[in-house]
């Protein structure tokens, strides 16, 4: 199974549904672009998703949005809310101190998924991000932290799946792998993304991520996001990194000492 090639039609359909769910409402052209499929393919996928009741067309315009049926896809998923319960007061307090929004994300497949964030608690944000929002693992500070602190075998398995995936450019993947400085991230305890290109405001924000551990094992990434125009990345590291690490350490300590 690890060496198998994904079924392309299913991969494309999932990509389209994720794009619609992520943005809330998209035109057919936007669906094709976001899911990286030809326009005729996007049309067939949308017709299928409409038939299955997972999306619907908006009444007054040719845009498509997810239906409540999408929520049923997560019915069987169970995740311990211990991480969110423990991290929440810490990231809220951190945002009050620094002003910038902070999020906690876990790895889900080859993406990082937000479990909680303080975007709603800060005026220093272009958009609000809610639990369930995803970012590509190699193009986000949280993803780089997750990859760096993953066991070597697990990291290689993720990269192997990405190499055989038909919806990822191999040149991009090779460049991303080279820039993933695992040893440096482990040694210095943080990762950065100079410009975030896969969020709701591409190119306008940068981010710094630090790891959260539970009993010595990587559990999640905590990320602070700030405006590119507000300060240089080097200045943000000098000003905020110690506080970020201290907050992540406090969360890690509580997680590791939580009664079973």
TrEMBL record:
The keyword Magnesium does not apply. Keywords: DNA-binding, Transcription, Transcription regulation. It comes from the Bacteria. Residues 7-68 form the HTH iclR-type domain. Pfam families: HTH_IclR (PF09339), IclR_C (PF01614). Residues 69-257 form the IclR-ED domain. InterPro entries: GAF-like_dom_sf (IPR029016), HTH_MetabolicPath_Reg (IPR050707), Tscrpt_reg_IclR_C (IPR014757), Tscrpt_reg_IclR_N (IPR005471), WH-like_DNA-bd_sf (IPR036388), WH_DNA-bd_sf (IPR036390). PANTHER family: DNA-BINDING TRANSCRIPTIONAL ACTIVATOR MHPR, HELIX-TURN-HELIX TRANSCRIPTIONAL REGULATOR, ICLR FAMILY. This is Helix-turn-helix domain-containing protein. The lineage of its organism: Bacteria, Pseudomonadati, Pseudomonadota, Alphaproteobacteria, Sphingomonadales.
């Amino acid at each position: 199974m690890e060496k198998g090639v994904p079924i392309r039609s299913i991969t494309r359909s999932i990509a389209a549904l994720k794009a619609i769910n992520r943005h809330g409402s998209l035109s057919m052209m936007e669906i094709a672009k976001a899911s990286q499929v030809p326009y005729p393919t996007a049309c067939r996928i949308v017709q299928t998703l409409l038939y299955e009741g997972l999306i619907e067309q908006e009444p007054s315009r040719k845009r498509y949005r997810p239906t409540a049926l999408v929520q049923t896809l997560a019915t069987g998923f169970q995740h311990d809310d211990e991480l969110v319960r423990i991290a929440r007061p810490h990231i809220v307090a951190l945002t009050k101190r620094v002003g910038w929004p902070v999020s906690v994300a876990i790895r889900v497949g080859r993406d990082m998924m937000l479990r909680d964030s303080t975007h709603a608690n800060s005026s220093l944000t272009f958009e609000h991000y809610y639990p369930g929002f995803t970012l590509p693992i190699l193009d986000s500070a949280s993803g780089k932290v997750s990859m760096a602190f993953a066991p070597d075998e697990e990291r290689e398995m993720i990269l192997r799946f990405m190499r055989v995936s038909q919806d990822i450019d191999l040149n991009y993947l090779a460049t991303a792998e080279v820039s993933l400085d695992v040893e440096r991230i482990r040694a210095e305890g943080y990762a950065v993304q100079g410009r975030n290109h896969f969020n709701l405001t591409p190119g306008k924000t940068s981010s710094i991520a630090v790891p959260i551990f539970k009993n010595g094992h990587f559990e999640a990434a905590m990320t602070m996001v700030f405006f590119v125009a507000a300060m240089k990345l080097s200045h943000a590291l000098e000003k905020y990194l110690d506080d970020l690490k201290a907050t992540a350490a406090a969360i890690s300590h509580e997680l590791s000492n939580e009664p079973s």
